[in-house]
Structures are given as structure tokens and as C-alpha cells.
Amino acid sequence: MKWRIKKCPKCNLYTLKDLCPKCGSKTIVPHPPRFSPEDKYVEYRLRSKYPELMSKILKKNSESSTP
Q1: Could you write out the three-class secondary structure of 28-57?
Q2: Which of 9, 16, 31, 52 has the most CB atoms around it within 10 Å of its CB?
Q3: How far is CA 9 from CA 13, 25, 26, in A?
């Protein structure tokens, strides 16, 4: 079992529990994921975070690859 501190998104209380003891909502891990240069899921994260940018990039790449 990893002992990583968690944070309640509603009341901003830090705790080690899965549920906030103050308001009862589910807690989240506020730490970013570890960086890896061989990240397999970077494309999916970028698509979910920046859908307009990714659609422009994919459209531009498909136009340039067409002879």
C-alpha cells in the first residue's frame, strides 16, 4: 500500500483516506504522473486536453502526406 497524500477537490482538505473526512467526497491524488520519454499515452492526453489543436495537427499531417 502506497502512502500518498490525497486532496479533496471540494473543500481542499489533504488526507490519506479515499473519502474526505470533512465532506465525504472522493479524494484525488494532486501529484502529477512521473515523466517518461517513452510515454505511450501522450497522444491520448493531448487529444483530451487540446482537441482543437490535435485536430488541426492531424489534418495538416494528412494534407502534407497526400502527393
Answers
A1: ECCCCCCCCCCCCCHHHHHHHHCHHHHHHH
A2: 9
A3: 8, 8, 8
Residue 1 lies in a domain: no
Between 5 and 54, where is the model more confident? 5
H or E element at residue 65: helix 51-65
Predicted confidence at residue 13, as pLDDT, reads 93
* pLDDT tens readout for residues 11-30: 999 999 999 999 999 999 98
From CA 32, how far away is CA 49, in angstroms rounded? Answer: 15
d(CA 32, CA 38): 17
Residue 59, domain member (yes or no): yes
Total domains in the chain come to 1
CATH number at residue 50: 2.20.28
